[in-house]
Amino acid sequence: MIARLRKADPVIVGLWIALVLVAIIWAAPFVFITLTAFKTRPDLIRTGSFGLPTTLAWENFTTAWDRANLSTTALNSAIIAFTKVPLGLFVSSLAAYALTRMRFRWQKALFLLFALGTMIPVQVALGPLFRLVLNLGLLNNYIGILLPYIAFGVPYQIFILRGFFQNIPRELDEAALMDGASHLDVYRRIILPLATPALAALFILDFVSTWNEFPMALVILQRQEAWTIPLSLQAFQGQFGNNYTEMNAAIVMAILPVIIVYMLFQRYFVSGLVAGAVKG
Fold first, then answer.
1. Are 6 and 94 found together in one domain?
2. Whole-number pLDDT of residue 6
3. 138 or 8: which carries more pLDDT confidence?
4. In contact, 97 and 187? CB cutoff 8 Å
5. What is the CATH number of the domain that holds 247?
6. Model confidence over 41-53: pLDDT tens digits?
7. How far, in whole angstroms, is CA 47 from its chain's centroid?
8. pTM check: above 0.70
């Protein structure tokens, strides 16, 4: 056993130590939030931030749910996220298919335009975006927030999917086309099944960014009935910011859907991102 330890590669050992340290650093805030969410205020003062709660204060969650109006804001966030993410992936996958499997004029220029779209920060567009949505009468409206979300999400999705689609052998769709299949058949029966890892990885990334998005929601969703979870958490913090236990309970409930979605698709996450970044 000792001889085996002496033969261990010091580089591998150093990498494992670094990974463990990084994992501890990243997990520490979530552990703090979770432990605080289950404590009463006297318990928090007595045990500190990372001490175990003496009793589980489940009432923090029910109180935070009511005060933050999470029943309404969670529904709004779910409707927006589960509409925007599949719709955005559908549009992006169609565009990526056209850019990799078809030949048309200005094809490279069009892809360059999409690539440049990934470099535009949201904050720069908030002013013109607000004026456009206001003129269209879409403030405090699902469509008013979905259209900008899709517009800002599609470029980076096309960028990743194009790289993934280029790794799929062309012989597969060429053989299908020779047998009489249309491009829609090739897209639906060949490309999409093979692109499942990339689509799942993008689903996670897009769901997390949509669920947590704040600047555009703050500008477009101004009525409390139309708020998403980030807006309700901001309002809750402003009103009950000194009640750390309930505040952390609200945060835990807000991030649970993100964790669930990640757990469902995590086995595709790394493979999808790596495959999409290899070529293109």
1. no
2. 54
3. 138
4. yes
5. 1.10.3720.10
6. 888 888 776 788 8
7. 34
8. yes
User: 228 in a domain, yes or no?
Assistant: yes
| 33, 252 contact by CB (below 8 A) | yes
| Residue 57 structure tokens | 């204060």
**Cα–Cα dist 16/13, whole Å:** 5
C-alpha dihedral (222, 224, 225, 231), degrees to nearest 10: 80
Residue 159 lies in a domain: yes
Which structural domain, as residue segments, surrounds residue 22? 2-47
- Amino acid, res. 137: G
Residue 59 domain-assigned?
Answer: no
Which stretches within 167-243 are classed as H helix?
Answer: 170-178, 183-186, 192-194, 196-212, 215-220, 229-240
3-state secondary structure of 23: helix
Q: Which amino acid is at 140?
A: N
pLDDT in tens, 149-186: 999 999 989 988 988 888 888 888 888 888 888 888 88
Q: What's the one-letter identity of residue 250?
A: A
**Per-residue confidence (pLDDT) for residue 8, from 0 to 100:** 62
